[in-house]
Amino acid sequence: MNSEQADGPEPAEDKLDEPRKRRNGQQGRPGVGAASKAVPRLARAVGAAAVPAPPVGPIAPIRMADGSVANHPIGPARAEAASGVRPPAARATVKRRHRLTLYTFILVVVLPVAMLAGYLGSFAQDQYASESGFSVRKEEGATSVDMIGGLTQLTGSASTDAEILYDYIRSPDLVADIDRDLDLYGIYSRNYDKDPLFSLARDSTIEQKTDYWRRMVLVEYNEATGLIRLEVRAFTAEEAQKVGRAILEYSSQMINRLSDAAREDATRYAGAELEKAVETLKETRAAITEFRTRTQIIDPLEDIRRQSNLLNSLEVQLAEATIQLDSLRATVTVSRSPQIEQTELRISIIKKQIEEVRAKIGLGQDGDRADSGYAQKVAEYERLVVDREVSEERFRATTMLYNAAQAEADRKSRYLAAHVEPTLAEGALYPQALLLLLMTGGFLTLAWALLVLIYYSIRDRR
């Protein structure tokens, strides 16, 4: 009898379990399937009563993924791992580090926010805001005189002026000026005993006043439009409006100083040229005056014209006397006639005068110009006259340039245009308690979370 006949037919329950065993083998449990097959085959070979089951470990019933129950000769731990079912987790307990985390959150976040809320609700004084808006404007006009050219470019641009004004409003200079006129201590320090957090401290330095000023006076500058928005806070609406008007007044004065400086820059070159022309003209006129005083001649050229006319007249008289003398000699038979002697005397006198005139105007006996002091005086005077004419022409040109430059600078003058006058507040807007609490709570929460993360990071590295 062979082994197959000895074994006999398989039980019906083994045939029913065959699909389940096949599924268990396909689901990745080869060890369990092999063990379940080995036990019946060994029992059928030698007899279930004669041969005991091999010591393969305890048989543990577990529930499979498809809902069926199978007995596996493995331990409980391996059975639980094979089935994917884990034991229930242990109950969580509050440890010491958890309590410390909670305490630090209360100390760092909750307590400061509660203290700030109590201060804002009990001690903080109401603050009123006065708003205003203005801009720097500059009159633009066409250049009337081309000769001044680039001088008009020295005036700058309105955007640059607005940036200068923005810095001036936040500067210690304006704080000192307004403190001198309005007494900032009287405006911002009266509630110091009740509200020291939002009030100006007594006996503050100019740096401390400037820091407080920048918190109470907010300036916004729009580079695209050139508009400046101003918000002034104070503990009364009237004082806020008064401070806003003072800022506008001092800002207008600042713009006027900028206009004056630009006007001086635009006319400085023309003014310097005009001063040089005036000095040159004075020097040439002084030289002519000194020449006339030294030579006792008002106008040598005019004197020459008069002497030339006199010379022409004397020459005509000499010609007439000569003709008369020739006529007398032809008609008078007496050699020594009184008429002839008078005519001869007249001719000699005319000739003497002609010689004197010729000598005075620098002409020789033959009519050529001779070297004389009078001729040199005339040449010197002519040179002085030319210098005077050049100086006068330069003076007229520089005067026109200066007037044109000054007119152009006046046309491009700056001025402060306020499109929103300082308003009078009807209600208090500050301090914004809810916003301050949210910002403070958010910042402290972030700081606390960062500290906790740093602590746990260091703890995990140990």
TrEMBL record:
One of its GO terms (cellular component) is plasma membrane. GO terms for molecular function: protein tyrosine kinase activity. Residues 274-360 form a coiled coil. Keywords: Coiled coil, Membrane, Transmembrane, Transmembrane helix. InterPro entries: Bact_polysacc_biosynth/exp. Residues 1-38 are annotated as: Disordered. The chain crosses the membrane at residues 100-120, 433-456. PANTHER family: FERRIC ENTEROBACTIN TRANSPORT PROTEIN FEPE (PTHR32309:SF13), TYROSINE-PROTEIN KINASE (PTHR32309). This is Sugar transporter.
